[in-house]
Design brief:
Elements (H helix, E strand, L loop, with lengths): L25 H6 L3 H4 L6 H4 L6 H8 L5 E6 L27 H4 L2 H4 L2 E3 H9 L8 E6 L15 H6 L12 H16 L9 E4 L14 E4 L5 E3 L6 E4 L15 H12 L8 H14 L23 H4 L15 H5 L8 H5 L34
Parallel strand pairs: 1-2, 1-3
Antiparallel strand pairs: 4-7, 5-6
Length: about 375
């Protein structure tokens, strides 16, 4: 995958090889019928297009126009925080599209991959285009706002500068500050009037969920594949319902399903190579649900329940951008909104508010910051 000189952070497992993914993905369907011609610029056609042999002519025949898309990730190219060492904030294994050879090893398609600061430049200069598109934003090992964790421990302040909300190197408030900056950039731009901002997470970080997750299928070893613990998903849009909670069943397929709906894409589940693979899964493993779930008949929602029909039809005024804008002082002042923001600003009293739960003086939620810390042996 590195033949197109994809960036590498030398301190971030640079020598770990990754498996080339060759099945269909959103970058494939977003490219539309133009993919057939663009794929000829792939640097390893035989390997990268191995599982798209029937999908490509199918997509070409549909004559679908390309939808503009972009992946903006901190450290992918030169960033303000690099200080002469390019890619020091980059986390390669978080860059979803670069796992697919037909993206990473094709200069005509990898041009859609950018650094995080490029997003703020592009949106301020109107470079996201007027025809609409799909754009992903991700943080990394550092934060471009120059914030430091509230914890006064010097080791914590040095080692937890990340802003993508992953444990081990990022700080939750610095991560929230990045999301706030991104929301403000959109809300302050002409793109606000046509936008849908989706904020979600890819894992629960071990948080307990009292609701057992639905089991979708079993893997070849008989292990259950479930939807996993529930995780947050927020939708911000001038056409969204205000202060509403959706109770429809969803997972990350819902985001893909929403993009399919808005952009008129062929669902991944309906592509011929995916249909064949799903049938093979049922034949070999007796599992009918191995594969994408973005088809119209699947049980997961498409996020449509987050939007107001009245606003979409013009019967109700769209929400103004002020609903989304976050004051700069709230972003840069830690802790955000004080010590009890739910109660003070949202008038919500947490169920455990006032419950005595003294923290032991020697407790450290970040044990790796303790002097003399010895990591556990790898298994």
């Amino acid at each position: 995958l590195n033949s197109d000189k994809q960036p590498i952070n030398p301190t971030d497992n640079a020598n770990n090889a990754q498996i080339n993914l060759t099945f269909a993905s959103l970058p494939f369907t977003l490219t539309g019928s133009a993919f057939a011609a663009l794929s000829q610029q792939d640097l390893n056609i035989a390997a990268d297009l191995a599982d798209l042999q029937n999908d490509i002519p199918y997509l070409t025949k549909l004559n679908k126009a390309s939808v503009k898309w972009g992946w903006y990730q901190e450290g992918y190219d030169a960033e303000p925080t690099d200080k002469g060492k390019e890619h020091t904030s980059y986390i390669g294994h978080h860059n979803g599209p670069q796992y697919f050879g037909y993206v990473a090893a094709n200069p005509a398609i990898s041009v859609n991959l950018h650094g995080l600061n490029d997003f703020f430049v592009d949106i301020s200069q109107g470079k996201l285009g007027n025809e609409g598109g799909v754009f992903y934003l991700r943080g990394g090992f550092q934060n471009q706002a120059g914030l430091t964790p509230l914890n006064s421990n010097s080791t914590v302040q040095k080692n937890f500068q990340g802003d993508d909300d992953h444990p081990g190197y990022s700080d939750s408030q610095l991560s929230e500050a990045l999301v706030a900056r991104e929301i403000n950039a959109i809300a302050q731009s002409p793109y606000w009037q046509h936008c849908a901002i989706i904020i979600t997470y890819d894992e629960s970080e071990g948080d307990y969920d009292h609701v057992p997750p639905e089991i979708i299928a079993n893997d070849p070893n008989g292990l259950a594949l479930s939807r996993g613990p529930r995780i947050p998903l927020l939708v911000i849009s001038p056409y969204a319902k205000a202060h509403a909670i959706s109770h429809e069943v969803g997972d990350h397929n819902s985001v893909i399903k929403f993009i399919d709906l808005i952009c008129g894409l062929t669902p991944l589940q309906e592509l011929p190579d995916e249909i064949a693979a799903q049938q093979l899964g049922e034949t070999l493993y007796h599992e009918p649900n191995l594969g994408p779930e973005d088809g119209p008949s699947t049980p997961v929602g498409d996020l449509a329940s987050a939007f107001s029909v009245g606003r979409l039809r013009g019967m109700i005024q769209p929400l103004p951008a002020i609903y989304a804008k976050i004051p700069e002082s709230d972003i840069t002042t830690l802790p955000h909104w004080g010590t009890n923001p739910l109660k003070t600003h949202l008038h919500i009293t947490p169920t455990d508010y006032g419950r005595k739960n003294p923290i032991p003086t020697d407790f450290n939620p970040r044990p790796s910051s303790e002097p003399g810390f010895i990591p556990p042996p790898s298994s």
